[in-house]
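Structure tokens please, single chain.
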Amino acid sequence: MRLLALKPEECTGCRTCELVCALHNQGENNPAKAALRVHGLFPAPGHYELKICDQCGECAKVCPTEAIYRTDDGVYLIDPEQCTGCNACVEACPLGVMFTHESTEVPIKCTSCGECVALCPKQVLAMEGGQGADVQPKDGLNAAAGTLLGYAGKILRVDLTTGAITREPLKPELARDYMGGRGFAARILYDEIPAGADPLGPGNKVAVVPGPLSGTLSVSAGRVVFAAKSPASHGWGDSNMGGHLAPEIRYAGYDAIILEGAAPRPSYLYIKDDRVEIRDASFLWGKGAIEAERALKDELGDEFQIATIGPAGENRVVFACVSHDFGRQAGRTGMGAVLGSKNIKAIAVRGTKAIPLADMAAMVAVGKDMFRSAFAAPNLKEWHLYGTAGVVPWANEIGAFPTRNFQTGYLEGHESLAPEVMRQEIKVNDKACFTCPMACGNYSHTKTDRYDAYVEGPEYETLGLIGGNCAIKDMKDVAYANYVCDELGLDTISAGGVIGFVMECFEKGIVTSEQTGVEAKFGSVEAFAALARKIAFRDGIGDVLAGGVRQAARVFGGGSDRFAIQVKGVEWSAYESRGTPANMLAYMTCDVGAHHNRGWAATYDIATGRDTLEGKAKRVIELQHLRPTFDNLGVCRLPWVEIDFDLAWYPKTLKAITGRVYEWDELNKIAERVYNLTRLFWIKHVPGFGRKDDMPPARFYEEPIPSGPTEGRLITKEQMNRLLDDYYALRGWDSEGHPTPQKLAELGL
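Here you go.
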């Protein structure tokens, strides 16, 4: 009997098998204790390999105490009482899949129990010769008395100026009132960043925060928040990222990392459990974000989870992103620029500790049921095939696809950007974040006689902002532009918004080819790539564009501010909203600027009527509490959004992990507290902040959509103000959008 990888080429890298193995055979919530390994081959050839024991018996041959024995089923097991910890078996394993447990010093070896098979979302794994060995699971390591259940219990604080590294206990009231993730970030940064602090100065701070579900056997438990005062808006900024960094921070023993001050030279932060160092990064400075990640993994080991910035972050482009896992980004609000201003090129984390849990057995049971529920979703296979790229045809059908700098909501010829084209022409593999059964990442290889690149993507937002907004209609070209942005460390949403804006300015004669250095025409991938590089290195016009569309419009003039598509200095993400008033309001009032993460409401508009304003503000507020709750928990919202995953699962798994009973009313109240706190952050840091800052550019209230399914639609300025009136009243804010004393008292603020 042995475990087999039947279809290794279909492995998505979710690492659920590793976590289940560690839970079942070691009783520990950390995949570092697993007896199999998922190894990514990135950036090329862009797939995973699984290292699995084949029960060859070489380990038994070299064991001096005969502690390794063969069962009647042909499985080799280790008797820990006989094992001396000599590690001869580890060294003899021809596949390199035996590992020494850091605490017990007894080697970890595959028992062919088969637990990993059942939770593999792509059925890559199978058992040969039976249903798995009869190996009883080890008792889980529940949290010790006095432990803050479900949390590592420590905040890591790094003063980059002095080099001081401190660890602070996590306060129980912070966990109770703010949960984790962006909730922790909002409370800490509101309290600690002084009013008037330069977003790119040493007075700003960066919070890197997972949530209490991150790293557990919960569906899609791999989300982490990067937060700081945003250089794009000078107000609240946070960005959420998937991949595997969030679990690793928790496994290293931390609930948050706070970076303050600025390093005197290019550096990276090295974290391996209790060992934390600020290391020299001069050998990485100037490298692309993907290139730098590969270089650090080659130096430290593939088991490290690494976040990097590219040249755009080094040069403080206000929409520079943070990259991780060869194509996952904390894209919005310029978090890469803030790290660059602190001379931090990368954060590298390895953790071998277990997360303290209230009830390990209950967590495993609920987790397995969560996965079975997700596997039963009727459209799960479609998400494996296309990911968010599958949204492109629908967005065009409803007139919401941003086209030519949001001039309209329908791209003629959008069929060339269809998800089927992506899968046929460029896709290499489905790629997943930690414990995610959806595997919505599209890892691709785009190659023509002009370029040859591997990239994760393009996702819908990139297809919308680089494809539609810049009218680049070739799938390979969009993927190449995606690669250029990823390597430079540019947010593809803002890059597409900024370059689409330049293309319209060029079309209108507001800027010339002498200024741009290139024929900045809609549809030109060469112009896009050239402008992206100018932005990243602040070369020529790129120095202006590096400040975002709001700043560029101020410099260009010519009425360009009317079609500089942004709110609060942050470029609009990929949904034209003149035909969807609730969605328009959600973007207007999003607490980081014009972004879909907080309260995407287009389907609600279609279901209740595009022309009505009634009830729209109420629904937006509901979404602005519900959707950010996932960011507080440290999990992805897409299972709920896209495969109708039942919200009831989250209180169940929270109880098993933290020991506390939560209902959604309480989770929403926490989210409301955080939303009001980030509003207070704006008021603290932006003088005169108020209603005017929630308004979109004039194009959206003066220019009816000229073509497509929503032709003629417009939301007037009067209607926008009515939406804001309703929204402010329901939130308990005054007419300027400031939380009232009564609301703050109600929320304990």
